[in-house]
Amino acid sequence: MAPIRITAAALAVMAAFVVAFQATNAAFSSQTVNTGNAFASGSVVLTDNDAGVAMFNVGNMAPGDTATGCLEVTYSGSLDADVRVFGAIAGGTGLEAYLDLEIDRGSGTCAAFGTATAVWDNATDGDLGVFLAGHTNFATGRDTWAPTGGAPNDTVPYRFIVTLQDNNSAQAKSSTVGFTWEAQNS
Predict the structure, then answer these.
(1) In terms of residue numbers, what domain contains 101?
(2) Residues 169, 54: Cα–Cα separation, whole Å
(3) C-alpha distances in angstroms, 112 versus 53, 63, 91, 159?
(4) Region 15-36: what's the mean pLDDT?
(5) For residue 179, with 0-12 CB atoms within 10 Å meaning exposed, 13-18 middle and 19 or more buried, which class applies?
(6) What is the three-class DSSP state of 22?
C-alpha cells in the first residue's frame, strides 16, 4: 500500500503543476517592434589642386624680387567646418625671416582670383618667419573660412605673395617651408 500513496502524491503534485502552467499560459499578449535603426557619421574632406607639386621653387632672389603662388582648396565634406592655414619650416638657413608674406583667400579660381580676404599681411602681421613661428597647428592657424557641409564642393583660391626684403643679412640664405590647411567640423 505504501507504493500507491507515493504514486498518488506524485500524481497530485503533477496535476497541480499542470494547472498552474496552464493558468500562466492563458494570459493575453502583444508586442511591437522598431527595426531598421541605422546610423552614419558625417565627413570632413579637404583637398587641393597642387598635384603633389610645391607652390614655390624660387632661387637666386635679389632684394625686391617677388614670387606669387596660388592654390585652390576644396571642401567637400558633409559637415559644416572651419578651415585654417598654418605652416612649418622644413629646412634651410633662415631666409624666412627676410621674406615678406601676404596670403589672400579669394573667390573664384586662381586664374580668376576675384574678391580677396586678407589672411596674412606683412604690413600688419609680419614676415614669413613670424607666420611660421606663430601658426603651427589648427588652434593657432589663420583664416575664417567656414564652408557649409552637404553643399556642392566649395572651392576657394589662396594666393601667396612672397617678397625678398632689402636687407644685406638675407644674402646666401635659404628656406624650405610647408603650408597646411586643416578643416575641423564646427
Answers:
(1) 46-185
(2) 26
(3) 21, 29, 33, 11
(4) 74
(5) buried
(6) helix
C-alpha cell at 36: 531598421
State whether residue 29 is helix, strand or coil: coil
What would the grid cell of residue 117 be?
580676404
Count Cβ atoms below 10 Å from residue 144 Cβ, excluding itself.
10
Task: Please tell me the pTM assigned to this model.
Answer: 0.82
Long-range contacts of 56-64 (CB under 8 A, 24+ apart): 56/160, 56/162, 58/162, 61/164, 62/164, 63/164, 63/165, 63/166, 63/167, 63/170, 64/163, 64/164, 64/166
Domain containing 101 — which CATH number?
Answer: 2.60.40
Residue 61 CA: distances (Å) to CA of 46, 119, 129: 33, 24, 17
Query: Percentage helix, strand, coil, to 5, in the chain?
Result: 20, 35, 45
| Under 8 Å between Cβ of 128 and 78 | no
Q: Is 14 among the domain residues?
A: no
pLDDT at 64: 98
Number of domains in the chain: 1
- Show the cell assigned to 85: 592655414
DSSP assigned state of 147 = P
Residue 84 in domain: yes
Mean pLDDT of 145-149: 95
Q: Is residue 52 part of a domain?
A: yes
**Contact yes or no for 25/19 (Cβ under 8 A):** no
Where is 134: in which H helix or E strand?
helix 128-134
